[in-house]
Amino acid sequence: MTFYGKIVEYTSGEKMVAAMQDQLKDKYEIDSIQVDWANLEKVVKTGIASGSPADVYEFWPQNMKTFVTAQQALDLTPYLEANGGEWKNAFNQTLLDLGKYDGKYYAVPLGSNFSVVYVNKDIFDKAGVEVPTEWTWDKFLEASKAIKDKAGVYPFAIGKDLQNWLARNGVMSLGVSEGKQDALAAGEVPATDAIFSTVLKNIKDLYDKQYWYPGKGALTISRDEAKAAFYQGKVAMLAEVSADARGIISGAQGLNVAVASWPSMGDKNAVLGGADGLFIPANAKDKDASVELLKSYLSADVQKIHADEGYAAANVNVQVSDPVVQSIMQLSADVQAKEFYNLGPKISDFFDKELISSYVLGSSESDVLGKLEKLRQQTIQQ
Hints:
CATH superfamily of the largest domain: Periplasmic binding protein-like II
CATH class of the largest domain: Alpha Beta
Oligomer: single chain
Distance between the termini: 42 Å
Number of helices: 17
Keywords: Transport
Pfam families: SBP_bac_1 (PF01547)
InterPro entries: Bact_solute-bd_prot1, SBP
Family: Belongs to the bacterial solute-binding protein 1 family.
Order of helices and strands: EHEHEHHHEEEHHEHHHHEHEEHHHEHH
Low-confidence stretches: none
Shape: globular
Mean pLDDT: 94
CATH topology of the largest domain: D-Maltodextrin-Binding Protein, domain 2
Radius of gyration: 22 Å
Protein name: Extracellular solute-binding protein
């Protein structure tokens, strides 16, 4: 059998595959193939079209629509719901639902990756601030003020290539709170909506109050510079990906690091992110055997390897001792995949390169959101 799912970028990747192979060695000879992320969709489509696909493919559950629409992915619902939903109930349901289309499941999650805030707990303690499991934007600003006033350091750092998170998470959390998430993702909400205005003003407030490291240069620092400032105790909070928890802690070299949720601009937590996952092609030669591979690879025993290496596993039965990994697994319940940013490449490019910097550096709200609205209209008319 062929398992196209070995992720060498994860320190757990080859170990998990080896454990699966060992579990099933008396039944199957399993050939594992390294995931080619740059060409993944092409590899999968070519394999399925050949008539001799891999028995299992790695793919992102939230991006499965192409394969579902083309009827190229096996409906896993009967397998998940068998025996009273035994297999289904083993997953974090938020992550499992990322692979759900029209009421049916076509992919299952391996683990999550999303935006989080790493916290220097000693600085928080000095400022009299508790590490939150969820917080509003106002509470985030209150904490930032206390950190700046009482600890004398910058509250928050985020690298240039991650700065779109500020706007994306803001739009998403306000959209979820106001019941507009689906409409936003479909491009049905104009950029003149108050959601976008609120997001811009909140971000500029963070910049103007100099809570954003290093003040005037905040828009141009790299991820490495942001990490270095965090490690050196110059900032209390670092925005980074959840999947790098072990790397962040290792780099912190003894700092007391905790994980906080992303601050919500709405009244409900919602954070941009997704999941790594796997699916079975509809034309797999032995579908039941493919399901056995999935069940083994995503079992608590194999997924504990993933968690022990510092990653947030999607199997809720995994016993985790690391408090940071525990926090990340709990926070993954707030992950959302639908967002306005993904409406089209022109919109995502505008978020990446112009939206925040233009407004923060002096462009008017009407000018910035006027450009965004033109892009929205162009995109939905295509």
